[in-house]
Design a protein that fits this description.
The complex is a heterodimer of chains A (290) and B (302). By secondary structure, chain A is mainly α. Chain A has 15 helices and no strands. The radius of gyration of chain A is 24 Å and the shape is globular. The chains are: A mainly alpha (290), B mainly alpha (302).
């Protein structure tokens, strides 16, 4: 039996090691590459760890943003920080609005008894089945006609509509876990429905709201299709658009491309590691409970 | 079901309250999903090319009929299915294995589960860039490792030929999709009560028998969910194609998502683009329903 237990541990740790390499290996290689000189990067066999640690490509991005054309760095590097800020604006606004609007929409679905409740829930969820590509065509056409393309506000709006159904689903299942008695107590004390939501449900649902906000932020941070199609000038590029421009441009040196990739995943990866509990519970409750 | 007992003063009916509470969210969704969807249907029934303004014309189902008789629809469709089936299979098998591993109790399990979120957090475009670098024909890490281990004698351009380009596309795509599938399957595994396994062990069931007669049947509802989700995602793949292959080499990775993009935003034929996008939507919906009915019925205990 003891031999069996030892064999079990060996199998587990060997697979765990393989999993670990497969999970973080590719990403660590990207990070390691971003700290190297171009010529080290192009050596065979590859240099696994940066030696010395080179920060040139990071400095270029900051210099480019500050000095503009005078810095002599490639165009994509110069506008990178701006696009990074745009991404923050888009993802932050989407998270804030999605959670607020989503919470009020989720409450009746979780707690009120009205005709058409299941139809409303189904309709909200079914809207996610329509592929973004088929919506992209009319959205771009209309946005151009009413002068709303090339603005990041439009991007916030579009992202919201894709993220709201998800947030509503997650929050309504979270609200259902809040004991009814607490709400009834508030009602007896004379609270209106709005007061019940604002003073009882929302404070109690804080963990659920946090999960929803983080997921909304991360999903809109990574959005690419609409960011690409609605952007016409660099002023409205998001970081995913810049990364795609970098990646498909053969003239830019490898280190700059890689550095742009690394910087643009810093926010989502920090979020993922710091808020892992919220994220995992959000992901699971969003798709599990009915 | 809902308590009406506590109603201290007269207020709006629950239906009206629901309307007020959900109005902002519903309006946003309607304005940017429902309305565009109707416009997309309208466009798909018209000849509508931005390169030839002023010649828009209602043509009924002609766009659809044209596509159905065109290899530019059937070939990308086949490529899409190859990609989607490959990806769903890879995601399912790998995430099931990882979930089984993480379902075991051992020190360090929590760390592994947290690290899984790293690939999940990486945006698809950055993921494409990462793999473009890993697979670089002159300096890529994959080439370097295979070369140093003696698997290949010279560096390969895997994105330049079939079938390697499809294989690596599937791997790169699956890499960021495996974590979520794993977490879902893991949560499914954790709902299986441990004493079922204990009594099975008492009855002399081996590892494989426990998997085949307990784990697999009880996990089946969650497996269905993962299959349906991943299928829907994979059928509309676009981001990674844009960065990694641009549909190439020679249309080898020209999936429907890419075909719609080039038709609409490069050739500027919005009518034809809308109709092929509708076809993709219809195929996705039909498959989702078929899978749902088929898998759900199979999963339900007798």
């Amino acid at each position: 039996m003891r031999q069996h237990a030892r064999l079990r541990l060996i199998v587990i740790y060997v697979s765990a090691a393989v999993l670990m390499i497969g999970t973080v290996g590719p990403f660590l290689w990207l990070v390691s590459s971003s700290f190297q000189y171009e010529r080290q990067l192009l050596s065979r066999p590859p240099q696994w760890l940066p030696n010395p640690i080179v920060l040139d490509s990071y400095r270029e991005i900051f210099e480019g943003a500050l000095l503009g054309e005078d810095s002599g760095v490639p165009y994509q590097s110069r506008i990178f920080l701006r696009s990074f800020a745009n991404s923050f604006f888009v993802a932050g606004s989407v998270a804030a609005v999605a959670v607020i609007a989503g919470a009020y929409a989720a409450y009746p679905l979780a707690r009120l008894d009205f005709r058409g409740r299941s139809t409303l829930l189904f309709g909200i969820l079914a809207s996610r089945l329509i592929p973004g590509l088929s919506l992209a065509i009319p959205i771009v056409l209309v946005a151009r006609q009413i002068g709303m393309s090339d603005r990041i506000v439009t991007l916030v709006f579009i992202n919201l509509s894709f993220i709201l159904p998800y947030v509503i689903w997650l929050l309504q299942s979270y609200f259902k876990t809040i004991p009814m008695e607490l709400e009834d107590a508030g009602r007896i004390d004379g609270c209106s429905r709005l007061q019940v939501v604002n003073r009882i449900i929302l404070p109690l649902a804080l963990p659920g709201l946090t999960s929803a906000a983080i997921l909304a932020f991360m999903l809109s941070w990574g959005e690419f299709l609409f960011a690409l199609l609605l952007a016409e000038t660099p002023a409205s590029y998001t970081s995913t658009v810049i990364v795609s421009l970098f990646a498909t441009d053969v003239d830019v040196n490898y280190v700059s491309i890689i550095t742009a990739g690394v910087i643009s995943v810093i926010p989502p990866i920090c979020f993922a590691l710091v808020f892992q509990r919220f994220i995992i519970s959000g992901l699971l409750s969003g798709s599990l409970k009915g | 079901m809902q308590a009406n007992a506590a109603r201290p003063r007269k207020e709006m009916s629950q239906g009206l309250l629901a309307v007020f509470f959900s109005a902002p969210a519903v309006l946003i969704i309607a304005a940017s999903i429902l309305v565009p969807f109707c416009i997309a249907v309208y466009l798909s029934l018209h000849r509508w090319n931005l390169k030839r303004p002023g010649r828009e014309k209602f043509i009924g189902l002609e766009n659809y009929i044209d596509w159905l008789g065109d290899s530019d629809f059937w070939e990308p469709l086949q490529t899409t299915f190859t990609f989607a089936i490959g990806s769903v299979a890879v995601i399912l098998v790998v995430s099931l294995l990882i979930a089984l591993l993480l379902n075991e109790k051992f020190p360090g399990r929590g760390v592994l589960r947290a690290l899984l979120l790293i690939p999940w957090a990486i945006p698809s475009v950055v993921n494409a860039l990462l793999w473009k670098w890993l697979l670089n024909p002159q300096y890529g890490l994959v080439n370097a490792v295979a070369y140093e281990l003696g698997i290949i004698t010279e560096y390969q351009n895997v994105l330049g030929s079939m079938p390697s380009v499809m294989i690596w596309l599937v791997i790169a795509y699956s890499w960021i999709h495996i974590p979520l599938a794993t977490l879902l399957l893991l949560s499914g595994l954790q709902t299986i009560p441990g004493d079922i396994y204990e009594s099975a062990i008492v009855d002399g069931a081996g590892l494989w028998q426990r998997f085949a007669y307990i784990t697999f049947p009880l996990l089946r509802p969650m497996l269905s969910i993962v299959i349906i989700f991943e299928m829907i995602f994979a059928l509309k793949v676009f981001d990674i194609i844009f960065v990694l292959t641009a549909g190439g080499p020679a249309d080898a990775t020209n999936v429907l998502g890419w075909q719609i993009y080039t038709e609409t935003f490069r050739k500027l034929d919005f009518g034809a683009g809308s109709s092929i996008a509708m076809l993709l939507g219809a195929i996705t919906l039909a498959l989702a329903i078929i899978f749902y009915v088929f898998l759900d019925r199979g999963a339900r205990p007798e």
